[in-house]
Write a structure and sequence with these properties.
The protein has about 475 residues and is an alpha+beta fold. The protein has 3 domains: about 170 residues, Beta-Lactamase; about 90 residues, Signal transduction histidine kinase, dimerisation/phosphotransfer (DHp) domain (Helix Hairpins, Orthogonal Bundle); about 150 residues, Heat Shock Protein 90, CATH 3.30.565.10. The protein contains 9 helices and 13 strands. Strands 1, 2, 3, 4, 5 and 6 form a 6-stranded antiparallel sheet that branches. The chain has a 5-stranded mixed sheet with strand order 8-10-11-13-12, with helices on one face. A two-stranded antiparallel sheet has the order 7-9. The radius of gyration is 57 Å and the shape is rod-shaped.
């Protein structure tokens, strides 16, 4: 802004100075025209800066062939004084000199106004110049008077430049006063506008500085409807996604921590049993019956540990996306019958299979689906008395197959329902461990269902029983129930 205003000021000063000088030159030219009207038959000065066009006028034909008054910015001279122009009124009388530079008029001992311009006028040029006489700046017009192509006399007209210079000094003072004021106003306005424009950026920076990995709930303020508001909204969306990702990661880490602790605890129990019976058997001589009982206890503990390890391996495969690999279309009746046979206990409640349409099929891995329903039936047998009832049913829907495992057992308290599919979660830890459960059965079921693009829901009422609904897409239908 300063450079622009400085350039504007210099340009304005130069233009005003030129316009004022042009005005003075016009005044001098007008004075010269009025003065020269008294010299009939003479040709007064060629155009400025060059010889007269067409050469000098022919001898013996005075007053004819005079070029226009191009150098003085006006029309050709007319013979005699112009009646429409008043005589020049100036305290600086024009000075007429001969070819040697001697002042002829006024009859005083005056010197030429400008000797340097006089030399050029002696060569036939009309010259405008600036000089200083007795401390007074003057604009001088040196005009040669030609007769028969020869310079006879030289006139110099002078005009004081005091008022012109005073006006230019006033203009400079005005510019030097107004430009700093304009810069101050522009600086103040710029600071004000910059403060308003950058305030959202500063607020965003302060809010971003308060955001850390431990607390991503902070959001940037959104003010207005400009680009900064759009940037803040985009940043807030990114923070929301980061917060969600951190929450999921925290939940996964917490799940892994619990998983590691629970797995260690579950494996420690059978290992402790094996270690205790082995130490007792090796400490002293035992009878064959005592060795047999020790080996049986060790075998039960090993079986328990084997089941836990198998369940952990299955969950690891589920986490790695390795379930539902070798799939095929299989009748649901065949899978449910195999699951009932695998889970049926002689002392448990009877299991009833209800499949109205034997042609209903599902697409999946037979071993994994059998494991899914065997876990559900086994879980129902554990929590249903012998006089209770367990029903396994399957029926086709529009785009899916619905399989239901319902029992009339003890049910699940409402506060435990959201957590029953978590790994190593038990509603009653002491009773489940005594019954041989590890708390992984429903977690495995949930993983198998999700791997086969199905959906599992659990409904339970305390003291009345539990119902598990599993929905699988029909063969040839792409995931109609996962949403």
């Amino acid at each position: 802004m300063a450079l622009m205003l400085a350039a504007l000021g210099v340009t304005l000063h130069t233009r005003v100075q030129q316009d004022l000088l042009v005005s003075v030159d016009r005044e001098l030219a007008e004075r010269a025209r009025r003065m020269m009207g008294m010299f009939p038959g003479f040709w007064f000065g060629p155009p400025l800066g060059g010889p007269p066009p067409g050469g000098p006028p022919p001898r013996g034909r005075r007053g004819r062939g005079r070029p226009p008054w191009g150098g003085l910015g006006g029309p050709p001279f007319e013979r005699g004084p112009r009646p429409d122009r008043p005589p020049p009124l100036s305290w600086l009388a024009p000075r007429m000199m001969d070819q040697t530079g001697r002042v002829l008029s006024p009859p005083t001992e005056h010197a030429p106004w400008d000797r340097a311009a006089l030399g050029r006028a002696q060569r036939g040029e009309a010259v405008y110049s600036i000089t200083t006489v007795e401390g007074e700046p003057l604009r001088v017009l040196s005009l040669p008077i030609l007769q028969n192509g020869v310079v006879t006399y030289i006139y110099q007209f002078a005009h004081p430049l005091t008022d012109t210079y005073r006006a230019l000094r006033g203009l400079r003072r005005t510019l030097l006063t107004l430009i700093p004021i304009a810069l101050l106003i522009a600086a103040g306005g710029g600071l004000f506008l910059t403060e308003r424009a950058l305030r959202p950026v500063r607020q965003m920076a302060q809010a971003a500085g308060r955001i850390g990995a431990k607390d991503l709930s902070e959001r940037l303020p959104i003010v207005g409807n400009d680009e900064f508001a759009e940037l803040a909204a985009t940043f807030n969306g990114m923070l929301a996604r980061l917060e969600e990702a951190f929450a999921k990661m925290k939940a996964v880490l917490e799940q892994q921590r619990r998983f590691t602790g629970d797995a260690s605890h579950e494996l420690r129990t059978p290992l402790t049993v094996i270690k205790a019976h082995t130490n007792l058997a090796l400490r002293s001589h035992r009878t064959a019956e005592e060795y047999q009982r020790a080996l049986q206890a060790i075998q039960r503990a090993a079986d328990t540990m084997h089941h836990i390890v198998q369940d952990l391996l299955l969950l690891a495969r589920a986490d790695g996306g390795q379930l539902a690999r070798n799939v095929c279309e299989t009748p649901i009746t065949e899978i449910l019958q195999r699951a009932i046979e695998a889970a049926q206990k002689p002392e448990g409640a009877p299991v009833t299979l209800n499949v109205p349409d034997a042609s209903v099929t599902v697409t999946g891995n037979i071993e994994e689906l059998t494991r899914l329903f065997a876990n559900l039936i086994d879980n129902a047998l554990r929590h249903t008395p012998a006089d209770g009832r367990i029903t396994v049913s399957a029926r086709p829907m529009q785009d899916a197959v619905l399989i239901t495992v319902a029992d009339t057992g003890e049910g699940i308290p409402p506060e435990h329902l959201p957590h029953v599919c978590e790994r190593f979660y038990r509603v009653d830890a002491a009773r489940s461990r005594a019954d041989g459960g590890s708390g992984l059965g429903l977690s495995i079921c949930q993983s198998i269902v999700e791997a086969h693009q199905g959906k599992m829901t659990i409904q339970s009422e305390l003291g009345k029983g539990t119902t598990v609904h599993i929905t699988f897409p029909k063969p040839g239908v792409v995931n109609p129930v996962s949403t």
